[in-house]
Structure formats: structure tokens, C-alpha cells
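Good day; I would like, with your permission, to put a structural problem before you. The record follows directly beneath this note:
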Amino acid sequence: MKEKNLYNTLEIPGSFLVPGFSIYVLEISGVFDKLISDEYSDTINKKQKWFYIGMTGDPYYPSARAAFHRISGHLELSSRSTQNQLQIALKESKIVKDDKDLEKLNIKMHHFPIKGFNRITDKLLSTDTMIQLKRTPAYKNYQKQRQKILVLENALIFELKDKLLNKTEGVALRTNQIPYPEIYKNIIELVNNE
């Protein structure tokens, strides 16, 4: 009898390791003995594919983590984590009840880098450093760019909310208000053509 799963492979493109602004889509699929939604039909739909949309770019500090850093944070197991929204969503929606369910998942990350991130400082970002940085044009530019990406994220979440594990509802926008329309279009097609 042939032994299954002797080892696994993870390949990380270098662009996933570079800090910068981006929107990402986590595509989560699972192969379960029975449809999870049969047991929990009130919490998730009958499909065994789910999505989560996120962005990089910190709301306070002028930093934008690499995409790989974000996915690792999303899967953090510590209950004290503030970045493990995907881990929480998987458990709250009853997709994952235990480690055996985790083994049955496959997570694919679609990464859409967005230009405009410039490292402002290499100093430790203490409260004093942040007070100084907030007065600079570089910090104001950082926040302006981050806000555009946040608008894109919210528009995507609103449009796709019925297919997402995101807790937030997003914001409805007219087409001409959505920044980065090509990325928006690509993500809508990606999720809708599951």
C-alpha cells in the first residue's frame, strides 16, 4: 500500500516577502467526509470553498507588512493575537472544529501588490518617533495611499460579502469611486468564478 502525504511543499514567491501595500484574497477549500454546511446550514452556505479579503498597510504605524507575514498572522493560534481574523472566522463558522479539520484545508493566497509604499524610517517606531513622523509629508502620503487601498478593500468586501468569511460588511461605492479598478475587477472575477 502506497503511503500518502510523506511530505508537503510550500513555495513562496519572493514578492510575498517584500513589505508593501497590497490587497490579497485567501481562497480556502476543503475536502470533508460530509458537507460541513449540512450540520451548520445556518452559518455557512453549501459550498466547500470560502474566501477572505484583506490588505496590507498599518492604520497607525507607517509600515506595510509583506503578504506572507499577513497570512502567517491570520493563522496565528494564540488567543491574544490581534491579527488572526481568518483563524477566528474558520472556527466561528464551524468550518474548522479541530486539528483534523485543519488537515483537510487548502489555503491559496492571491496577492495584488499596489505601488506607493516607501519606507519612511528604519528607527524603532516608538511613541516619540511617531509624534515626529506624523508631522511629515512622507507620513501624510503614506496615510493617503493607505486610505485608497482601504476604500478598495471595503468596496470588495461589500460586493462579495455573501462569499466571504470577513466579519465586516464593507461599503457600497459607485464604480467611478473605486480606486484601482483593474484590481477590483480581477478580484470580483476571481471570487465569482470559483
Summary: The CA atoms of residues 36 and 95 lie 7 Å apart. The first helix runs from residue 36 to 39. The radius of gyration is 19 Å. Residues 40-46 have pLDDT under 50 and may be disordered.
